[in-house]
Task: structure prediction
Amino acid sequence: MTDTQVGIVGAGPAGLLLGHLLARLGIDSVVLEARSREYVEQRVRAGVLEQGTVDVLTETGVADRLQREGMVHHGIELRFGGAGHRVPLSDLAAGRAITVYGQQEVVKDLIAARLDAGLPLEFEAGATEVDAEVGIVRHEGGELRCEVIAGCDGFHGVSRAAVPAQVFERVYPFAWLGILAHAAPSSEELIYTHHERGFALHSMRSPSVTRNYLQVPPDEDIEDWPDERIWAELQTRMALADGSFSLNEGEIFEKGIAPMRSFVAEPMRHGRLFLAGDAAHIVPATGAKGLNLAVADVRVLARGLGAYFDHGDERGLDGYSERCLRRVWRVQHFSWWMTQMLHRLTGDPFEAKLQRSQLEYVVRSEAAARTLAENYVGLELEDA
Ligand SMILES: Cc1cc2nc3c(=O)[nH]c(=O)nc-3n(C[C@H](O)[C@H](O)[C@H](O)COP(=O)(O)OP(=O)(O)OC[C@H]3O[C@@H](n4cnc5c(N)ncnc54)[C@H](O)[C@@H]3O)c2cc1C
Result:
């Protein structure tokens, strides 16, 4: 006897979207989340959605607000040596685009859809242990017996410990200081800046909210960064040589420092347990891929579970880990490549010359720019 077909641990983008896709296939699930609804809805993280992520949310009916409020971008700017260079993503990647829409907005939309449909989603019910052989999730309120468990509990969750996995990891010698500010975006598109003082990124969340990032040392204390220092450093790194650019400033209402890490646990399955999203892998944020990779995992998992529960076909589930890891490693490479091209690394002048050469090649060669574009907008699920 089981309580549900699929027990989903974690109500981040991976767990919530999986629950949504399964409901559409007539598969029942229970989502257990450690935190409160308010907490997960307010947690500020990613904001760049790949074309494939937007498509799946749209096709499955949870994108009304995304379609109204999301900001579609057809290019990005690479800025270095005091000059800006536009990479026309959509021209280079068969018309595909990215959409700027906060991760917490995706989470809000998926929670609302699940609760409106009367489907089980328990907050403040953190899992304490997952039994991958028997299919039991022990949690703060008791235990849940499941045919299949989806470990969608992020990097610090408990699910990964139940998979005897090999870990591949790289920790970068820098972090990102990120801010949200009440200021109109200073550019229509994202600006990725390579500067001798370090990387900077200008992004946005809405026509009146700016999201900016600065490369900082990994052990930096946020208390050492009063607002004036943040704005001054952003202005310095993002300045154009002809003086024609000035970043709009405004009240900073959110700031934090996030480490930069690459991490993969292989395989992503053990027994009845399937890991998805950050529970299995982390990418440095330079490629804007973490959320999108989580979405890609659960699309593959939902398909496999659909065939399994419909007619007992286990091939999709058996191939899940290998299928996902192919994309994970493509995305790991892209995120690493963007990271090492754009950040100040060790300060070695030879390294800096190589970076500059790489950047110039990307903006001069259509082939190189296309490589960036098709990875940035996201490869089709079938292609990666
Ligand atoms: C500070 C920060 C900033 C980021 N910024 C960016 C960015 O700018 N761009 C980008 O592309 N990506 C960014 N990312 C990465 C991106 O947000 C993640 O890749 C994405 O959230 C992955 O979704 P997920 O559902 O797999 O995991 P998560 O979003 O981490 O969701 C996991 C959920 O599981 C819950 N949980 C944890 N433990 C348990 C438990 N024991 N029982 C039950 N529930 C549990 C958590 O509370 C959480 O709700 C950032 C990540 C962090 C941490």
Notes: The longest strand covers residues 166-182.
